[in-house]
Design goal:
166 residues, alpha+beta, 2 domains, two-stranded antiparallel ribbon, 8 strands, 29% helix, globular
Length: 166
Amino acid sequence: MHDAAAKSHEPKHPHGDEWFARPDTGSGEPGLSFGCTQCGDCCTGAGGYVLFTPEEAAALARRLGVGVEEFIGRYTHDTAAGRSLREVRSEFGLDCVFLDREKLPGRAVCGVYEDRPMQCRTWPFWKSNLESPSAWARASRSCPGMNKGRRYDLQQIRILRDKVEI
């Protein structure tokens, strides 16, 4: 969600809108850190959507051993944003239909990880999370892997950011 009030109070940075291009106070390097903790928080919560392309639908159908029509009927639903992966109610909220909380105790893993949609592959480097430092901070409150783990350089962030419109 876009927060115009918060954005208007963000300080301007010499690197334009790419606030993450400024050197990190600790390392002196530009970029951002992220390391997935397999908590599942990005795959659950309030209702949302995970959009996918026809190619991704075909890959997911192959992985599941079903035809594309069966995949669409069984694992997806219509949303205002477009066709989305289905959600299932859990004690954590609404989980992605492919989120597996049983395979690895204490972890939440993607049951279709190798074929997951681009929207999932590019988290947390979505345009909406990169709008401003406050947008990144807001997203990091529900994602323990943000600001930890592997350092992504500017080129990597830009490539991931530009793959989806979220």
